[in-house]
Design brief:
Number of strands: 5
Number of helices: 8
Radius of gyration: 18 Å
Low-confidence stretches: none
Mean pLDDT: 90
Largest sheet: 5 strands, antiparallel
Order of helices and strands: HEEHHEHHEHEHH
Distance between the termini: 26 Å
Structural class: alpha+beta
Helix content: 25-40%
Strand order of the largest sheet: 1-2-3-5-4
C-alpha cells in the first residue's frame, strides 16, 4: 500500500483483512476477530461535525464532561488537511463467537459491554503502537481510555489531563460520521443493540491513523500483523499451524 499512490491519484486503496485469534488474559477464552484496513485521504472521510456533535450532546453523558469528548476534542480540520493520508483500521467481532453466558443474556447492555470492552481496548492498543512508528497520531473509538481505570480529571472538576501523552479522541469526537464513513469506504453496515434486541450479527469498531509529515512508510498488512502478533492476548500467531487449524475448525477459511 503506497502513500504516494493515494496522494497522487486520490484512489482509496484497500489492503485486505485477516483473522486475529484473541485470548482473554483474565478468563483464557478465545475469540476470533476480523481485522481490515485501507488507505485514503482525510477528505474521503464523511465529516459532519454539527450532526455528529449534536448526536453526542443528545445521547452521551460524556459530552461536556470527559476530557476526550466534545467540546474539548479538536475537530478533524484541526488535525489533518484534506489531502493528508489516513489509514482506517477496523475490527469486527461476529456475535456468534460471543461467550455462551453472554449469548444467553436478554440484557442488551451485557452483549454491548462484552464486545465493546474487547474491541475498544484492542484497537486503542493498535493505535498506541502504530502511531509512534509512523511519527503521527490516531483517533480512537469511543471514550478516552488513557487513564485506565481511573476517573477522568475533567470529570473530577480539574482543568488538565492526567496523562496527556495517552489521551485519545474518538473519530466521532472530531466530527467524523463513522457510520457513513464505514459504509462508504468499506461497504459495511453498522449495527447496534437496543432495548429488547440482543440479536445483531456483529459489532464493528474503527480507528484512524494519521502518519506524520516526515513519515513515508507504507502500512502493509504484514506490518499490522506483526504489531498485533506481539500483543499479550495473541493466542496463536498469524500463519502458524495452530492458527490455521483454529480457523478451519470454526469454518473461517475453506
Amino acid at each position: 500500500m503506497s502513500l504516494e499512490g493515494v496522494l497522487q491519484t486520490g484512489n482509496v486503496q484497500t489492503n485486505g483483512m485477516f483473522w486475529y485469534i484473541y485470548r482473554s488474559q483474565s478468563s483464557g477464552n478465545i475469540y476470533p476477530l476480523e481485522i481490515g484496513n485501507l488507505l485514503c485521504r482525510a477528505q474521503d472521510l464523511v465529516y459532519e461535525p454539527e450532526i455528529v456533535w449534536a448526536a453526542c450532546a443528545k445521547g452521551c453523558s460524556n459530552f461536556g464532561s470527559a476530557g476526550g469528548c466534545p467540546p474539548r476534542s479538536p475537530k478533524l480540520e484541526k488535525i489533518a488537511s484534506p489531502e493528508d493520508p489516513v489509514w482506517l483500521i477496523y475490527c469486527r467481532f461476529w456475535s456468534k463467537f460471543k461467550h455462551e453466558n453472554v449469548l444467553k443474556s436478554r440484557n442488551p447492555a451485557v452483549h454491548w459491554k462484552f464486545q465493546d470492552a474487547i474491541l475498544s481496548r484492542f484497537l486503542a492498543n493498535i493505535g498506541y503502537k502504530l502511531a509512534p512508528l509512523l511519527k503521527g497520531s490516531f483517533l480512537s473509538t469511543g471514550y478516552c481510555m488513557g487513564c485506565g481505570g481511573k476517573k477522568c480529571n475533567f470529570k473530577l472538576g480539574l482543568d488538565s489531563c492526567r496523562n496527556p501523552h495517552r489521551r485519545t479522541f474518538s473519530m466521532e469526537a472530531t466530527g467524523i460520521n463513522v457510520v457513513e464513513t464505514i459504509k462508504k469506504l468499506f461497504g459495511i453496515k453498522l449495527y447496534w443493540y437496543s432495548k429488547g434486541n440482543t440479536d445483531i450479527p456483529y459489532m464493528l469498531k474503527c480507528i484512524a491513523v494519521f502518519p506524520g509529515k516526515e513519515s513515508r512508510e507504507d502500512l502493509s498488512l504484514s506490518l499490522l500483523i506483526n504489531i498485533v502478533n506481539e500483543f499479550p492476548n495473541c493466542c496463536w500467531r498469524y500463519n502458524t499451524d495452530k492458527y490455521w487449524e483454529y480457523l478451519r475448525e470454526n469454518d473461517l477459511v475453506k
